[in-house]
Design brief:
Elements lengths: L1 H18 L15 H5 L1 H14 L20 H26 L10 H4 L5 H12 L7 H27 L8 H12 L7 H22 L19 H18 L3 E2 L12 H7 L1 E2 L1 H14 L5 E3 L6 E5 L12 E5 L5 E3 L1 H8 L13 H17 L8 H13 L4 H16 L5 H17 L4 H20 L23 E4 L5 E8 L6 H6 L13 E6 L4 E5 L3 E3 L11 H4 E4 L4 E3 L1 H6 L3 H21 L1
Parallel strand pairs: 1-2
Antiparallel strand pairs: 3-4, 4-5, 5-6, 7-8, 7-11, 8-9, 9-10, 12-13
């Protein structure tokens, strides 16, 4: 009887998992089978083989790397724990839209996640499963699963980075530190030190092959993986660098990215290896890592405007000055420079101190400083994610930097006071300001200004009423022609977008109306205006007369689509429950509009 029940269960469970709605997909599981089946000895024999198969990359994509093929595992117990974690994950994801729809960044809801019991890998795996759901449905689930996964991984990476920074100053794993920065800024990508090191090892093998043609008895060829041996003879070191330059710049075509210098991808080591380009500091770290593996003791130089490496030419134990080194420009195809040529490179004379070697923390500080500068360039329509990430990283290294704490306070304040942004960020501003005041009482002017405006914002929030509901049937909305979920095209600028909100007239302030030259429009600001998500990732506020239906609608690739919509039908987006509460009559209007558009299109084709 038990065996028959097992065979039946094995056929039914996968089918249930595939056919269920997003809320319960994958949760009709074996743990709900009758007790007599679970306790049967024959069932246990079958189940372990079957359940191990359930942990395959196709079913649960990120789990198998945590298990060794030789380890004994009670797969039934693993399955139970994994399914319980999946239920908890989906319960939390389902709650996020209702709790945080009106907030830009859920900042106090992650406490539920931090208090979860059971292995974190199972919880993360369920989030990955949600993100990998096929089709154009469950967009809101995917949106919040992505946010939660982003948060979880960043917290883990930041803890690892802080532990890494506690290493002694002579701990020189520059690559490891750079990978932590890469991981923190790209937490949803599968980036690991092991994988990046494996790619570098493959480059080292190519260098060794070239080096063998130069000197078949070169001592570097005898080095084993993981060894930290160094070659002392300058001529032998020179042969390694020659081989490296040939492989990196001639054979593999690595080069400095002069055309797109101010791109954050240039600072991420996994992208440097994929795209084979970077900026001076990232190219130098790659060059340094390869050289040291082959026995050449290069050192990093925090040279102004252009990161360099230095190669000692003096005798071991002798007193050295800056002229006893050759300086290597990894950005410039490994070109070897004198002191005078270094100054010519940046167009200015610098002191001898700037030719000195720097430790890991200083190298990471410069990398994060570059990201911070790029983050400040982000447009006002963005979420400032890069700026927030780089501030987090910088303050992890230097937690008492008053100016950066002030910048973080201003950033959170800025995000907190925008319409529909997070109220809890405002409270975080107060915590940061209190810390600044303790560190530097001289900042009381800037702190006082931010505190005053933060408290004023809190008072305004207290006066706000509940959700504003906009009914198309209201007389004051009679001129609103379009509705949420429609795919539109801007008549003047040509961009595609989807509507996620509307106002009967322009609700922006006089300064915005003047700056955007709204008065030059035929209908001015006395016409409906629409909140739209644009395909370039921006959010805009467009006048009705500037929009028209897109008769060939496509999905809008915008990171916030899932915040407002649950599904893309192929012709329009369906609002999620939270957006529909605010525009309860729009969905029916969308159906009528789409039907009319495509009926007219069909008539034109027939004619």
């Amino acid at each position: 009887m038990a065996a028959a029940a097992v065979d039946s269960a094995m056929e039914v469970v996968p089918a249930l998992a595939e056919e269920a709605a997003p809320e319960v997909a994958g949760l009709s599981c074996l743990v709900n089978l009758p007790g007599e089946v679970l306790e049967d000895g024959e069932w246990r024999h079958h189940s372990c083989r079957y359940l191990r198969g359930c942990f395959s990359p196709r079913r649960w994509p990120s789990l198998m790397k945590h298990y060794s093929p030789t380890d004994y595992v009670n797969w039934l117990e693993e399955y139970k724990v994994r399914q319980k974690a999946g239920l908890e994950a989906r319960k939390i994801v389902a709650s996020f839209s209702k709790r945080f729809f009106s907030e830009h960044v859920p900042c106090n809801g992650f406490s539920d996640i931090e208090n979860l019991e059971g292995p974190e890998i199972f919880f993360e795996d369920e989030l990955v499963c949600i993100l990998n759901m096929e089709g154009r449905k469950a967009l809101t689930w995917k949106y919040y699963a992505k946010k939660i996964l982003y948060y979880l991984r960043q917290q883990k990476i930041l803890n690892n980075l802080k532990a890494f920074l506690q290493q002694p100053d002579d701990y020189e794993s520059y690559l490891e530190g750079a990978v932590y920065i890469d991981q923190y800024c790209n937490p949803l990508s599968d980036i690991s030190l092991k994988d990046i090191q494996a790619q570098i090892d493959s480059i080292v093998e190519l260098v060794c092959k070239t080096l063998r043609g130069i000197n078949s008895r070169h001592p570097s060829l005898a080095f084993k993986a993981g060894e930290s041996s160094m070659i002392m003879e300058i001529e032998l070191q020179s042969q390694v660098l020659d081989a490296m330059n040939y492989v990196l710049y001639d054979q593999l075509k690595f080069k400095g990215n002069r055309m797109d210098y101010y791109n954050a991808l240039n600072l991420y080591m996994h992208q440097v290896l994929i795209r084979r380009t970077g900026i001076p500091i990232s190219m130098s770290l790659l060059y340094l890592t390869i050289a040291r593996q082959l026995g050449v003791p290069l050192e990093p130089v925090n040279f102004p405007s252009h990161f360099l490496l230095r190669w000692c030419q003096g005798a071991e134990g002798a007193t050295l000055d800056i002229f006893d080194y050759i300086y290597i420009d990894a950005f410039g195809k490994g070109k070897q420079l004198t002191v005078k040529e270094c100054e010519y490179l940046i167009g200015q004379h610098v002191t001898a101190a700037l030719y000195g070697v720097v430790n890991v923390k200083k190298v990471l500080q410069r990398m994060v400083g570059n990201l911070l500068s790029l983050g400040k360039r982000e447009g006002i329509d963005q979420s400032y994610q890069l700026l927030r990430d780089s501030l987090d990283l910088y303050l992890a290294m230097y937690p008492d930097q008053v100016q950066l704490l002030l910048l973080q306070a201003r950033l959170y304040f800025h995000l907190g006071i925008w319409p529909e942004k997070s109220f809890c960020l405002v409270l975080k501003v107060l915590d940061i300001l209190q810390h600044i005041q303790t560190l530097d009482p001289g900042q009381h002017g800037a702190v006082g200004y931010l505190v005053q405006h933060t408290l004023e914002h809190i008072e305004r929030k207290k006066e706000e009423v509940g959700v504003e509901v906009k009914l198309r049937s209201d007389e004051k909305h009679r001129d609103v022609c379009y509705s949420i979920g429609l795919i539109m095209k801007h008549k003047r600028y040509g961009y595609n977008c989807v509507i996620y909100g509307w106002d009967p007239t322009c609700m922006m302030g006089h300064e915005w109306i003047r700056n955007m030259n709204v008065h030059s429009l035929p209908h001015g600001h006395h016409q409906p205006f629409y909140n739209v998500l644009v395909e370039d990732g921006s959010c805009r506020y467009a006048a009705q007369e500037n929009l028209e239906y897109n008769v060939e609608p496509q999905e809008i690739s915008h990171p916030d689509v899932g915040r407002y919509f649950s599904e893309f039908t192929g012709t329009h987006y369906i609002p999620n429950a939270e957006l529909e509460i605010r525009y309860p009559e729009d969905l029916e209007f969308v159906y009528e509009t789409v039907q009319n558009i495509y009926s007219a299109k069909k008539e034109n084709i027939d004619e």
